[in-house]
Structure formats: C-alpha cells, structure tokens
Amino acid sequence: YILPKIIKNKSNLNPPGPPGLPFIGNLHQIDQSSLHTSLWNLSKLYGPIVSLRFGFNSAVVISSATLAKEVLKTQDLVFCNRPLFIGQQKITYDGIDIAFSSYNEHWREMRKIFTLHLFSPKRVQSFKYIREDEVASAMKTIHDLALSSKMVNLSEMMKNVTTNMMMRVSFGKRYQYGHEITNVFRLLNELQAYLVDLYVSDIWPGLPFVGLVDRLMGKKNRLEKCFRDLDSFYQQLIDERLVNNRKHKSCEEDKDEDDVIDTLLQLVKDKLFNLNHEHIKAMLMDVLIAGTDTSAAIVVWAMTSLIRNHKVMKKAQEEVRNVIGKNSKINEDDLPKLTYLKAVIKETMRLYPPAPLLVPRETRKDSIVHGYKIKQKTLVYVNAWAVARDPNSWESPEEFLPERFLGGCDIDFKGNDFEFIPFGAGRRICPGMSIGVITVELLLANLLYLFDWGLPNGIGKEDIDFDAMPGITMHKRNELCLLAHV
Ligand code: HEM
Prior knowledge:
Bound molecules: protoporphyrin IX containing FE
Largest sheet: 4 strands, mixed
Helix content: 40-55%
CATH architecture: Orthogonal Bundle
Strand order of the largest sheet: 1-2-7-4
Distance between the termini: 75 Å
Number of domains: 1
Strand content: 5-15%
Number of strands: 9
Number of helices: 19
C-alpha cells in the first residue's frame, strides 16, 4: 500500500540537486570555465540525475549510462529539442541550421540534405583525395620542421589541416598558412565563444530591460559584428561561385567533384527543398563549426595521451609500421587494418570527448525520468564526459588503456552503447561521424607511421598537461608542441 504511494509521490518531485538562491538559482555554484567537470562533481554528490536552476531556466544533468539511454533512446522524442539561446540563434540565422534548430519539419529536411546530398557515404568516400592530399601536405611541413630540428605545434597544425579539408570539401578552396588562414581561424574561434556564451536575456527571459543590459554590456554588439563578418564571408563565397560560374582564379581548385556549395546551390535551383541562401549559410556554419575543430581536438588529445604513455605510443607505431610495411605514407584504404590505432582513438574519445556535454537539449513536454518529474522546456545536459568515467561502467576509468576496446569488446561510439557516447545518440546523433572518424584515423596513422615523437629540451612528460579550454568543443588549453624525428 505504501510503496506505490512513495513512488507516486516521487514522480511529483524534481530530481535532487543543490539548493539554489532566489533569482540566480545555482549559477554561483557552477564553474563556467569547466562546465562538464563542475557538473560531474555535482553528480558525484547528488546522483546520476541532478536538478539545477540557471536564473529562470530549469536544467537537469544526466551522468550515467542507464539514464543516458533513457533520455537519448527510450524518451528521445521528448528530449530531442534544442534550447533557443540568443548567441546560437543569431549565428545560425534563427536556428535554420541543423545543430541548433528546434526539432521540427525544417530540421528533418536539413538533416536529410546533410545525410543524403552533402555527406552520404558515397560522397564522403569521394572526398578521400582531398583528405589524403591535405594530410600529405601537413606531413611534408612536419618533415621539414623535423629536418631543421624545429618544434611542431600540433594544436595549430591539426586545426590548419582540418580547416583546409573542410574548406576544400565545402568551397573547393584551400587557404595559405599565415594571413589568410589566420583570418578564417579568428572568425571561427570567435564563433566558438559566442556559441557557449549565455546572455542576460537567456538567463532571465521575459524580464524588462534584459535586452538593454546585454546591449549596454557590449555583448550584443560583439555578437552582431561576428555574425556580420561571417555572413559576408559566406556571401562572398556564394557570390564568387555564382558569378564566376565555378571558376576560382585566385585559389587552387578542386573540380573533380561537386563541393558542398555547388550541391546546395543546385538544390536551391531544383526547388526540391524549400531552401534559400540563408539556409546555405546556416548549413555552412554547422559544417565549419562541427567539422573542423572536433577532429583536430581528438588528434591533439590522442598525441598528448601517447606522449605521456610511451608503451602505448610504441605499440601503436609498431602496428602501423608492421602492417603497412615500407611506403611513403598511409592511405585511407590501409585504415581498416589498424585495429590498435582504432582502439587508441576510441580510448581518446572516451577520456576526452570533444563535446563533453554533447549539444544541450531541451524537453518538448513533461516526462518522468528515474521516477522524477521533468517539466517541458527543461534544459538537458547529457554529460558524456562523466558517463565515460563512471566506475559503474568502466574498470580503472581514469587510466588510458586502449586495450579495453580489444579482445572481443564490441563497445562502439555509434550511439548504441550508452557508456560511450562521444557523438551523442538518438535522433540528434552526429551526422558527420564517419567523416570525422576517418579524418582522425588518417591523421594519427600518418603522424605515427612517419615520425618518432619527443619532448622539447627541458620538458618532462609530466609537464604535458591535460587542461582544457572552455568552449563547445573541448580543446587542450596549452598548445601541444613536440619534436618530430624522421
Ligand atoms: C570526430 C569528430 C566529431 C565529434 C566527436 C562530434 C560530436 C558531435 C556531438 C556530440 C553532437 C551532438 C549530438 C547530440 O545532441 O546527441 C554532434 C552534432 C552534430 N555534428 Fe558532429 N562531431 C564530429 C564531427 C562532425 C563533422 C565532421 C561534422 C560535419 C561535417 C559534424 C556535424 C554535426 C552536426 C550538423 C550536428 C548536429 C546534429 C543535430 O542536431 O541533428 N560533426 N556532433
């Protein structure tokens, strides 16, 4: 008689969480500079589902595999919306992209365009020559640095490579290192900051004058300036394509395959989808934010882990060198043979998921999770970082042990094993997973095949840290600079 009553009563309760203050809620208890670890610490105190309040917004944090499965699979349809924050909405032309769009018919169309027209398995395969070419060019640069005993800034170089890959795939353009690429980086980096920034109007929506406060603080102006710069950058690329009729005189060209911009312009022309130039720009925004930084971050975290774990580095190098034999480089066709390398990459993504809180979700209606009541329009953080370090799911979770993914272990990142979700899961799972993984594998395989790696003079391996920078993508805070030996 009593038990059902208790259960019934619990379903009227919010999940447990730290008591907040009036008006600000729990804002003062959260470290914005490392949100995922701050939320992880709270989950250690309050459990796998934690309730918080950020100003007027209710939020829950999910930190176990079981509950991740509940919200990303069983109740995915309830949990698959995105919150409408000011910075993200502005940058994505009011959420007409994929990543920050609400869950609706428009999102379905954009996602279809992405998976069927822009990055279908066939198209991903057809961009292979771009990836191989960019990797070869980066390896050449590293080779030259190695010969003159100069340091390789892997953080910078990996961003260069992945940005150029996506620039070529998207616009058939590559940028020269130095001024040109620095400008693109500046825009993309600024963009990263605006994507996580919360505005006073986000925290206390509906309150009088909040918009004015944001404007007085200068935030809105900076956001609008960044948006205008990006908008004219994309518009210029679209105009160039339209006017020059696919002829780029000032840059190198890739005309073997339609690039993303060609495909999108063709779709506009064919009127198959309800698309205009703003949709194209919003889509390009997603491709450049989601498709460059994430892969670069993984390679840097992998190399950081390997330089700290000499035995693993040696084993991975032995594999690539024994399996491939004598050759000038590793191509994509070689990758399926590299079992240990793939385990190293999985282990890196387990410990350092580039999007540790995925992309935050919002509930579409009231629901019950773990017996607790979750209201409609609650902000939902699924802490992929915490889930992948949960001792209930992983043995020695803090240790870097790629072997855990070998020997019959079939845990994968494809959204079915909820203790390991670096790409998310469910309806909003990352649609760029295959292109991201192949990029990381190709880069890491070549770095290990062609070079031996060492630390600069006077630096011990314990000096190499794992501190992360705040942002929607988790980058290593201090750049990884190593010496390459040929
Ligand atoms: C290896 C690197 C990558 C990682 C770790 C990664 C991770 C993620 C994560 C965690 C999400 C959110 C999933 C969720 O809400 O459940 C996401 C979404 C997304 N990713 Fe990736 N991603 C990577 C590469 C890429 C690439 C290369 C592209 C594009 C070419 C891409 C495009 C997107 C898009 C468009 C979304 C939004 C999906 C939606 O909201 O429906 N990602 N990604």
